[in-house]
């Protein structure tokens, strides 16, 4: 199964609701993630552009996209960004494979 990083920013209304009734939203979304065959690995509150960072595991990209769409459609998120993660070993494998493609960029062609 692949790992995904979800970066989420709440709306003002969502923050107001959480301040009025503090809760662990990781536990609130766990059943929906598990229904899609996924698993919550961990989650954090964060400073900066995103309010929450969550790492999940899903059997495929369609399931990961489905939860991201559900998050976005729910109305509590100002923005949702989902990124598939590669292990270091997978990244190295991709780097090695990239060198075999024969691809030449337009910038390389101009030299």
State the gist of this model.
This protein is of the alpha+beta class and 111 residues long. The protein has helices spanning 12-20, 25-35, 61-73, 88-98, 106-110; strands at 2-10, 39-45, 52-58, 77-85.
What does this structure look like?
By secondary structure, the protein is of the alpha+beta class. The protein has one domain: Dimeric alpha+beta barrel (Alpha-Beta Plaits), CATH 3.30.70.1060. 44% of the residues lie in helices and 29% in strands. It contains five helices and four strands, in the order E-H-H-E-E-H-E-H-H. It has helices at residues 12-20, 25-35, 61-73, 88-98, 106-110; strands at 2-10, 39-45, 52-58, 77-85. The chain has a four-stranded antiparallel sheet with strand order 2-3-1-4. It is elongated, with a radius of gyration of 18 Å. The relative contact order is 0.23. The model has no long low-confidence stretch (mean pLDDT 94).
The top level CATH class name: Alpha Beta
Q: The CATH topology, please? A: Alpha-Beta Plaits
Mean pLDDT: 94
Query: Mind summarizing the main beta sheet?
Result: 4 strands, antiparallel
The proportion of residues forming helix, as a percent range, comes to 40-55%
User: Regarding quaternary structure, how should these chains be classified?
Assistant: single chain
According to DSSP, the number of beta strands is: 4
Major beta sheet, strand line-up: 2-3-1-4
Count of structural domains: 1
């Amino acid at each position: 199964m692949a790992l995904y990083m979800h970066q989420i920013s709440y709306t003002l209304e969502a923050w107001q609701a959480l301040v009025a009734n503090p809760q662990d939203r990781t536990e609130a979304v766990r059943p929906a993630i598990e229904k899609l065959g996924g698993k919550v690995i961990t989650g954090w509150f964060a400073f900066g552009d995103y309010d929450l960072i969550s790492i999940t595991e899903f059997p495929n990209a369609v399931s990961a996209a489905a939860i991201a769409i559900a998050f976005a459609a729910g109305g509590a998120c100002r923005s949702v960004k989902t990124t598939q993660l590669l292990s270091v070993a997978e990244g190295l494998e991709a780097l090695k494979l990239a060198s075999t493609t024969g691809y030449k960029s337009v910038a390389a062609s101009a030299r």
